[in-house]
Amino acid sequence: MVIKRFWKLIALSIIIVAVLVTYFIHSALVVASQFPDLEIKTISGDETTLNDVAINGDYYHEDNYSSSLIVSLDGSTYYEELSYFEKLEPQFPPNEATKIKDKYRNFMRGKMYNPSSFFENDNYLAYVGAEISDWSKNHLPKYYLEVDVLNKETNTSHSFQTNLPGVKEIQHADILEVHMDQEDLKVIVNLNYYLNDQYVDEIKVYTLSISAEGVVGDQTLFDPQEQSNKDKWSHLMFLNDHSELDSGNNLLLQKDIGHYVEVSQNAIASEELDSELLEREFYIYNIKSNQLQELQIPQEQYEKLLSNEFHLNGFVKDNHAYITYLNEENLVVLSFSLEDFKVDSKQTFNLTDLGMEGTNISLMENKIYAVENGMGNSAKIFVGDVTTGEILYKGEIVHEQENDDRDDFTLNFYTITKN
Amino acid sequence: MKNFWKLTNFELNRFSKIYFILIGLTLAMQTIGIVLLSSSYMSDVEEQLALGSTLEWIKISVGTFSFSSVTSSYWFGGPIVISIVSLLIYVFFIWYRDWFGKNTFIYRLLMLPTARINVFFAKATTIFLMVFGLISLQLVFILMENELLKLMVSETFREDQSLNQIIFSFDYMGVLYPTSIIQFFINYGIGFMAVFVVFTGVLFERCFRLKGILFGILFAGVALFVFISPVLLQVTILEEFFYPNEIFILMVITGLMVTTGSIWMSHYLLNKKIRV
Hints:
The complex is a heterodimer. Chain A is mainly beta. In chain A, 14% of the residues lie in helices and 50% in strands. Chain A has three domains: 1-34; 37-90 and 296-419, no CATH class; 96-242. In chain A, strand 6 (124-135) and strand 7 (141-151) form a beta hairpin. Chain A is globular and about 90 Å long. Chain B has two domains: 1-174, no CATH class; 178-276, no CATH class. Helix content of chain B is 82%, strand content 0%. Chain B is globular, with a radius of gyration of 24 Å.
């Protein structure tokens, strides 16, 4: 009787519940089976060198779906497999700045998750962000510095805003490094603007007084006039690891100087400008002493460094600065003493022997971490000691089920970070 | 409770004819679409075969056939749009038909020996059931139509897609069928909250007539403002103060506030202000 009277309502409800429940179970299973479980298989060496190390990259399937992923000793984590709430987290993979968010939740509100903007020591956590207050009539941004310093002991923070002195019309401002020295903050900012029609980088070191809430000193590391020379261009780069909160007292800078040459491709086409690299210099800037020192590079290495089109990696640890470059199939690590700024050792890792082709590398705590970026369905990794040249670990990122020969996907790894 | 289900069943029955027509129209149009599109594709292929083209060449020049070729056509999207529009109109009509019928039916509904808010809930539940019913049946239809497509197009020229691939490959399907269950509740929760607000707006109009339209619009405006207030705060005075999961929790709270506010206001209007 009831069924006869209510059959439409009952039938509709049963269809809805049955179909939707089946759909969500099916979808969850499909998503779960889309991405293969990856693991790091040890070939030789000490696995503990990979403790807390995360290898970040992308997974591509030939059916046109992809996901960012992290591989560590614990296995693989895919962004697409995260829950709705985990996906709300600001960065994937998480960086040093997002990690301090969990510890200092209130302090981190409204801040940009750029590790270079932060400084942390036992007593303080400091943040300096370059923010845009307004846009000028000619569509150029007006920047100011947002400063916030947390006293960890009292759990109170002191924030203020200050203008960038000596800065007029700039295209872009980037915080490269924040360093706190007692009551003062040293902030290194990269400013981009046009000078005599040339796009220049100006690296400024601002000294900010927390008590006076403003800039008390500013210094330019390289004269931007030099870059505005039309016949000669120059470009500045920081080689220190940007993913770290604190890069230490010594910063490693690379300065490229080049010129434009006119190349006529054929008689009809107009002449085109091509740029040619002439010089490459490396400097150590000590934040504490405010000293800029050039690294002395022996002639044989200089030629290699100049001809190396790949991105050069740099790293400063204790009393040494390290620069890596590729020399044919060799990965070379030059070590410079920070006492006399000369090369004191050179280590070579043969990539062919390691069975690797293209690599992405990271230098962390006197170790070099390299991962293959060959777009295959596996990727080799190795860890080497930059002081001794010893290979500490060799391994490979592979699909967990070895008998499962899936080759319908490719992996591309690009960064290695330490948690 | 029994009265509520009786009323819901009654409301469902009243719209069932049109509802069955919508279901039939969806199935018919989508089936015709598959038959037409796949046979026109196959005739192109046969034409090429008659000209002596190789299979590889045909795959390049004519292309392969997949369910996406159907979902992007009016034959597939058309009935979905018609169903959505019909249900949107019915959100209003479910109330007005009681006033504008041959005899004012609302008079009898309001005189039933049950709480008047049950009438409101029964109408809302009817709308929700019909929405969920259509999206569930559409899923079943896609599976059936996919099988039909396999019969129509030979395997050589077919690119088979799974249900999830069909849904992922099309934007609006992603809104109707999110893979995450939380996203599903967000999408339909917002939709049903809007239905409650519109119902309250209609009741305002039914209580105060012309002036009521203004009240209704005002009520909807306030509801929208309350619902999105966490986001408004975030982008204006608080400058990115909230973390995304906090915004989510705040919007769940404001969403519940708007929904309960709508129900409470409708309850008040139905009991105290309604005009027959």
